[in-house]
Amino acid sequence: PLDYESAMFHTLLIKVENEDPLVPDVVYGPSSTATVYITVMDVNEGPVFFPDPLVVIRRENIPVGSFVAMLNATDPDYLQTQSI
């Protein structure tokens, strides 16, 4: 998959070759190439949680303030300034 944070630009070289002439008695090269330049647009991605999924089982009526779970979230857009 394309990912803006990994690489914003890609270059793709395409080469095609003919086994037979395109037009009889006309000399064309047997191959042709084209270069395609790809610019990946950024999207605002949601946070990535670890562990994912997180399953928590606790008894009901535990005291307020009891420890329930700990997880970590990272922002894949860490290079981008965010605003709310």
Automatic annotation (TrEMBL):
InterPro entries: Cadherin, Cadherin-like_dom, Cadherin-like_sf. Keywords: Calcium, Cleavage on pair of basic residues, Membrane, Repeat. Residues 1-49 form the Cadherin domain. The keyword Transcription does not apply. It is found in: Membrane. One of its GO terms (cellular component) is membrane. The keyword Protein biosynthesis does not apply. It comes from the Eukaryota. One of its GO terms (molecular function) is calcium ion binding. This is Cadherin domain-containing protein.
